[in-house]
Design a protein that fits this description.
Shape: globular
CATH architecture of the largest domain: Alpha-Beta Complex
Helix content: 25-40%
Oligomer: single chain
CATH class of the largest domain: Alpha Beta
CATH superfamily of the largest domain: Medium-chain alcohol dehydrogenases, catalytic domain
Largest sheet: 7 strands, mixed
Structural class: alpha/beta
Length: 334
């Protein structure tokens, strides 16, 4: 594979609305440094964190003068740096955490990135599916399994039809858990059930907590995989089992009114997690587990919409609208 001197990309120099700040242009392609691989990308996944960073959300300071967005993607290894086996050249891979502490993400034809932040893309798995993984699947893997085995435990996945929730339901079910998912509509209930949830509960219903407790025969939830701790704290305080655990990977606000006494009386522990903060070796172990499910054909994916790189602003707007169910992919043509 011959590497060009420049490559197409999308970038922004200032934060703001997608159509105001995202630019479609070119970037120089540099040879990979020691320990890195150069990946020719064919698909880039758009995540809510990409939207928040580009939009300049509170707590999302712009770290670099120019940013190529997106954390997740998939493509083919085009070259390797010193210390990386040459046998990797030509291998299809999926890329994760690409934009963490870096100015250059996956919204480009090429990316040089540490070998630890790519994983083999199993045979027969498309680049588009590879770009669905990264943040959603790895967050779900840690949120479900990071506190220990879930076989025989009751797991509640809040937002069971969301990006992380969809993978979380599947991972928990495949690892032997009794899975309940909260949803906001009948359509989302269908999605969560198709992913493997045993039951769904509409969290908007006034007796949602009572429904969850009834499904557990009054015992409560062993593990809560939580998308929004600020919104769900009250529900958690009513449904957790004695000694239950909460894996909090998201929050709609920066502060929460948590019913501490109710949780303390049930000896509940809360574990907060951000996938970017884990060591590379841990991320590789999550990738291996995800790949095992991919190879077994036991992991479902939802691609909602695809856009060419030149229409990245529309891709961002689709995610920002909250109206899409599934992953928005930016295709980076051959």
């Amino acid at each position: 594979m011959k590497t060009p001197s420049t490559a197409k990309c999308a970038f922004y120099d200032q934060t703001g609305p997608a159509r105001d700040v995202l630019v479609h242009g070119e970037m120089p392609v540099h040879a990979p440094a020691a320990g890195e691989v150069l990946v020719r990308l064919y698909a880039s996944g758009v995540n809510p964190t990409d939207i928040k960073s580009r939009g300049g959300a509170p707590g999302r300071a712009k770290e670099f003068d120019r940013i190529i967005p997106h954390f997740d993607g998939a493509g083919t290894v085009a070259a390797v740096g010193a210390g990386v086996p040459a046998t990797l050249v030509g291998q299809n891979v999926w890329v994760f955490c690409a934009r963490h502490d870096r100015a250059f993400g996956t919204a480009a034809e090429y990316i040089s990135i540490g070998r630890s932040f790519v994983a083999p893309l199993p045979k027969g798995v498309s680049f588009e599916i590879g770009a669905c993984l990264g943040i959603p699947a790895m967050t779900a893997w840690n949120a479900v399994l990071g506190s220990g085995p879930v076989n025989g435990r009751t797991v509640l996945i809040t937002g069971g039809a969301g990006a992380v929730g969809h993978y979380g339901v599947q991972i928990a079910r495949r690892h032997g858990a009794f899975v309940i998912a909260t949803v906001s509509s009948a359509a989302k209930a269908t999605e969560a059930l198709q992913a493997g949830a045993h039951h769904t509960v509409n969290y908007r219903e006034p007796d949602a907590a009572e429904q969850i407790m009834a499904l557990t025969q009054g015992r409560g939830i062993d593990l809560l995989v939580d998308v929004d701790t600020t919104a769900n704290a009250r529900l958690a305080s009513r449904v957790m089992a004695m000694g239950g655990q909460i894996s909090s990977y998201g929050s709609g606000g920066l502060n929460a009114d948590i019913p501490v006494r109710d949780l303390r009386q049930r000896c509940v522990s809360i574990r907060f997690l951000t996938i970017f903060r884990f060591e590379a070796a841990q991320l590789q172990s999550y990738a291996a587990g995800i790949n095992a499910m991919l190879e077994a054909g036991t992991l479902q994916h939802r691609i909602a919409q695809q856009y060419p790189l030149s229409e990245i602003a529309a891709a961002h707007e689709a995610v920002e609208s909250g109206a899409v169910s599934g992953k928005v992919i930016v295709s980076i043509g051959a």
